[in-house]
Amino acid sequence: MATSQAAPRAFFDPWAHLPGGPALRAACEAGDIPAALSLTRALSAHDDVASALWNIAEHGLHPDQRAGYTLAVEAADDGTPLGRTLTGVRYVTVGWSIRTRQRAEHVSPAQFEQFFDWLRRAERVLFDVCAEHPGFAPAWEVRITTARGLQLGHGEARRRYDRLVALEPAVFAAQRVFLQQILPKWGGSWEEASRFVEECASVAAPGSLGPALVADHAIERWLDGERSVPSATVDRMRSAAAATVLHPEHTWTAATAVAHTNFALFFSIAKHPADAWPHFDALDRSPVEGLWNYYAARPASAYDAAQRNAAAAVARRRGRRS
Amino acid sequence: MTGQVQVRELFARRPGTTEGGLLFRVGYADETLPTSGITSLVVALALRAAERPGLDVGASVGPVVTEVRVTGTPDRVRTTLRDVALALSDLPVRHRATEARALAERAGEVVPVPLWRFGHQGYGLGPGRYLGLHRVTDGDLRAWARERFTAADAVVWSRGEEALGPEVPLPGAPAGSAARSAPAVPEAAWSLPAEAHAGGTSVIWDAVVPAVPAAPVLAEVARRALFQSLRHDRGWTYDVAASAGLLDGRHAAFRLSAGLRQETADQATGEFLDTWGRLRHAVPDEELAVARAHLLLTFDEPRQEAVWVREDALLTVLGRPVPTPAERRAALEAVTADDVVGLARQAWDTGLLVTPVREGWAGTSVVPRGAGEPVEGRSFARLDADAAVVIGQDGATLRVGAARTTVRFADAAAVVAYPDGGRLLVGLDGTEIPFEPTLHDDLTVSDVATLVDDRVSSELVIPVPRERAPERPDRAAIEQRRRSRAARRAAENGRSRLSRVEVVRLIAALALIPGLLVAVGGVAVCAGGLVLTLVAWIDVGPQPWGLPVLLAAVGGASGVLTWLCWRGLDRLRVGIRF
User: Fold this and answer.
1) H-only helix segments in B409-452
2) Residue in A125, A131, A151 nearest the CB of B274
3) Which residues cross the membrane (chain B) (predicted)?
4) Helix residue ranges, H only, A211-272
5) Looking at beta carbons, which residues of chain A come within 8 Å of B281?
6) How far is A293 from chain B (nearest CA, A)?
7) Residue B2 forms part of a structural domain
8) Is A120 in contact with B280 (Cβ distance < 8 A)?
9) Taking CB atoms and an 8 Å limit, are B266 and A152 in contact across chains?
10) Residues B104 and B130 sit within 8 Å (Cβ to Cβ)
11) Contacts (Cβ under 8 Å, ≥6 apart) of A197
12) What is the distance in angstroms between the Cα of A89 and the nearest Cα belonging to chain B?
């Protein structure tokens, strides 16, 4: 009898909210990247495709089995735009794992050298995909990240974002990635970031995720030390949630879960736990990492505590009403 | 001139003014760095001898061909070409200083892309590089004119109403001599495409492709695509250029460029590369048709023989087959989209990218220079920077920060020698290593003479004037460099450098740890004492009150101390990474 030992599920399960997530995870854990690619090919929403690609590249295998994973991804590269893009994404994740998420001043020159080396490899692959298939949106999405890593400038990152928008007008993952580019920590400014958040909100179709970007922006400000959250920001966040993830016309994608978890985080740090509850509740028993790992050294317990706090606040509110 | 080669002559009849020229199979690729500029100066001196007021005459020096061109009446053209030839056979050098200065002033800003591809040799030497003129003597100039501007190396061409039958008394060459073949175009020793930090304010793609009819078509297709995206759609550039220029007759120098504006330089570079990169995969038929139609316009001109006579002369002097105008046209018409796409791939795979902004574009790396094994020898620290030069038996290494570049004396293109004793060792690959006695405490002028001058061929030494040596840095600057050097060394040794505040914190933490241990011990001992007193009170009977009161007081104080030490350590742990 064949025995298989299931890998222990992480607290934040990156596959949980992805359509066909369990099958994708199973394929990756079995090292069957071609199967994972064909499952990804079946996804229709661009945010789901982007999420699947980054998941396969980053969380594809149990940590104990990761040696040789890059080779496995390369071997599965079937020359299709999707296969090549996955190879590029894998290179990006390898590079970023060497660089770590620390701020630049805590990264050594040797780490940077290797990081740039992997990103150049990724950019070569993705550049070719975009040259040969200019209409293939997922590659443009990844190229926004390579532009940031290679420090090709805000103008270039914006150009790539615009190329993507011309193909797919509302990719929340891309909006989040470009927002990172123009934050002060990557050489941008809060004003520039605010303008972009406004822009994403103003061009969004009803129920689409554009206005939810304000949560990323507010959390980043909080993380940067701006600890007092004005009530106007809280009101704005409520209406952003109502216009996006809580909107009746909203279609659920993997990015919805990210938006929910970030709304939950925002309302938790803004000390409005009752407002956080609908978002915790929407994620049910499958927490999503979002920006929680930037918020706390132990994001899982922070998430747990905030979720309990939100549930208690809602219970108290109900108690008062009854 | 019996027994000697006669100059080859091409003539095509057409109405109007007469135009004629001399083409020589010599160019800057035939020079070396210590002779760089010699061809240009020879031509300038010869032209000076032939110039007259109002004469429409010009000259240019290319990589392998030098050209003199004149327009006017048949007599004027005939006389001018004769005078140039006469001057070349007996070069007047009296005004060399004036002409050399004029060359330098006219050189302008040239982005030295060929230098990055070929180094300080052959095709990497031009255009506009005149360093060698500091070294070449009058004798060298006259000898270069005599040896490289012979009848065998020349072709004279003209178009006009009457054949010139020009008398071109160039230096003779023995019968049977032919034009020298052009220097071979070497392949790059590193992986391409790559980036070249050649400066300028444009984004440039420079490549070497076979000289085939598809080359001008590709250049035109690329020019139109770049113009559409960068100029029309985005407005990020004012000028887009594309060319497939002459190299050795077998290869063409393919170049695309677009001027950048500072505020949009990033995105313009990205768009330039994406637009150009796409042509490696597809060239739409309609774009090919438009580009080809543009190139075919020349064939609508009457008197096709006259249109092409100069190009024919160029091929002749390079020893290449000369097609008829009809054959040229047919070759252009036969170019397919697949030909253009295939050539675009070659142009990509041999490409050098120049952009003044950022690096890592399209995943490329910068061309490696001075990358050889560092030499071992005497090390001389620089006073003005965290840098040092190491001079060994067979080369020198420059360390700036943690980066090291090396030039082996055997691979030196030249040594620039300043009158104050400073030297600049220039490697064939473009690496430069300065030896400036004023910028070192321990490197003297005589050290430089012994360790550098004596180890390179005297033919490579170019004496270059300069007004003064670099100024020795002041004491504050020297101290600043010393500190940055110490910081780098600490970082290289894998230790993170602690700031003064962190050192204080570390000492405080080390003092608090024994304090905490003592305080915890105090609490434990006092608690134990109290328990024993209680046991004795139960077992034996009433005990004196003094001891338990003392134990309680000391225990309480120890408890407070424990809490303080713990809080202190907790606070101090911030900022210190154990």
Assistant:
1) 445-451
2) A131
3) 506-538, 544-566
4) 213-223, 231-243, 254-269
5) 131-132
6) 19
7) no
8) no
9) yes
10) yes
11) A179, A213, A214, A216, A217
12) 14
Residue B502: pLDDT band (50, 70, 90) is low
Chain B: closest CA distance from residue A93 (Å)? 16
B495 interfacial to chain A (CB closer than 8 Å):
no
Closest Cα of chain A to B275: distance in Å? 8
For residue B284, tell me if it sits in a domain.
yes
Is the previous residue joined to B114 through a cis bond, with omega within 30 degrees of 0? no
Q: What is the pLDDT of residues B444-481, one digit of tens each?
A: 999 999 999 999 999 999 999 998 889 998 888 888 88
Mean pLDDT of A66-90: 93
Q: Rounded to an integer, what distance in angstroms lies between the CA atom of residue A193 and that of residue A202?
A: 14
Whether residues B552 and B484 share a domain: the answer is: no
Provide mean pLDDT across the span B492-498.
Answer: 55
pLDDT tens per residue, range B346-365: 999 999 999 999 999 999 99
> What band does B501 get if pLDDT is binned at 50, 70 and 90?
low
Pair (B543, B448) in one structural domain: no
Q: What is the CATH number of the domain that holds B382?
A: 2.30.29
Instruction: Specify if B473 maps to a domain.
Output: no
pLDDT band at A251; cut points 50, 70, 90:
very high
Q: In this complex, which of B266, B362, B402 lies closest to A123 when CB atoms are compared? A: B362
- Residues B440, B537, single domain; the answer is no
3-state SS, one letter per residue, for A49-91: HHHHHHHHHHHCCCHHHCCCHHHHHHHHCCCCHHHHHHHHHHH
Length of chain A in terms of residues written: 322
- The answer to whether the CB atoms of A127 and B280 lie below 8 A apart is no
Same domain, B341 and B390: no
Beta strands in B54-150 (DSSP E): 56-61, 66-72
B260: closest CA of chain A, how far (Å):
13
For chain B, what is the domain count?
4
Q: Which chain A residues contact residue B491 at CB under 8 A? A: 108
B499 has a pLDDT exceeding 70: no
Q: How far apart are CA B548 and CA B530, in angstroms?
A: 6
Among residues B363, B397, B431, the one where a domain terminates is B363
Q: Which residues of A236-253 are buried (b: 16+ CB within 10 A; e: fewer)?
A: bbeebbebbbbeeebeeb
Q: Which amino acid is at B418?
A: Y
Percent of chain B with pLDDT over 90: 70
pTM: 0.86
Q: Select from B363, B389, B412 the last residue of a domain.
A: B363
* Ranges of each domain in chain A: 171-322
Chain B environment of A131 (Cβ under 8 Å): 274, 277-278, 280-281
Which residues of chain B have a CB within 8 Å of the CB of A160?
270
Examine the predicted complex and report whether its ipTM is higher than 0.95.
no
- B397 contacts: CB under 8 Å, gap ≥ 6: B374, B375, B389, B390, B404, B405, B406, B433
- Which domain range does residue B434 map to? 377-467+480-492
Residues B293 and B436 in one domain: no
In this structure, are B12 and B95 located in the same domain? Answer: yes
B562: tokens are 């424990």
Q: At what angle do helices B38-50 and B96-107 cross, to 10 degrees?
A: 120
Instruction: Average the pLDDT over A208-220 and give the result.
Output: 97
Same domain, B528 and B544: yes
Residues B52 and B12 both lie in one domain: yes
Q: Please report the pLDDT score of residue B128 as a whole number.
A: 85
pLDDT classification of B577: cutoffs 50, 70, 90: very low
Q: Does B264 touch chain A (CB under 8 A)?
A: yes
